[in-house]
Amino acid sequence: MIILGVQGEAQMEIFQSWNHSKILTYAAYWGIFYVCLDVLVTKFTLVFLSWLIEETKDINLIAVTGIIIIAGLILFLLPPIPGVPIYLTSGIVLTSVVGRDSLGSITAAIAYPCAVSLGLKLLACTLQQGSVGVLCFQHRLIPYFLA
Questions:
Q1: Among 53, 117, 127, 132, which has the highest number of CB atoms less than 10 A from its own CB?
Q2: How far apart are CA 60 and CA 66, in angstroms?
Q3: Helix 61-76 / helix 20-55 crossing angle, nearest 10 deg
Q4: Where are the domains of the chain?
Q5: pLDDT averaged over the chain?
Q6: How many C-alpha atoms does 59 have within 13 Å on its Cβ side?
């Protein structure tokens, strides 16, 4: 009695011939690796950004902006790091520096970190598309599959 059809039955026979315990063991190893990487990257990112906030509290606006742009760009280019800690650090550091330095108003202290964060994210996306996208599109098979 064929329930899955001829092709489905053939695929089921292939599936039943696999070594399932080995496959599930590898899946468990990959899951443990992913969770460890996810937890470690998140914790180290928060520790690094907390250290950055502490170190930049007495530096002028241009230098702090440059430091935030360099650190944020590096972190944005790493795939497992989310954007929220970068935006949070930018908001905390740049808002305090803008409030302390020449601009002074609360509107400028809010608008400046927003503009820097937006520019930083757009620059990171441009670099990612320029490096990864162009290199992938130059490969022969990728344009073929996309067309």
A1: 117
A2: 10
A3: 180
A4: 21-146
A5: 84
A6: 14
4-53: pLDDT as tens digits: 788 888 888 898 898 889 999 999 999 999 888 888 887 888 888 888 88
Amino acid identity, position 79: P
H/E/C letters for each residue in 54-97? HHCCCCCHHHHHHHHHHHHHHHHCCCCCCCHHHHHHHHHHHHHH
On whether the CB atoms of residues 116 and 68 are closer than 8 A, the answer is yes
* pTM attached to this predicted model: 0.64
Q: Which residues of 103-132 are buried (b: 16+ CB within 10 A; e: fewer)?
A: eeeeeebeebbeebbeebbeebeeeeeeee
Residue 86 identity: I
Count of residues in the chain: 147
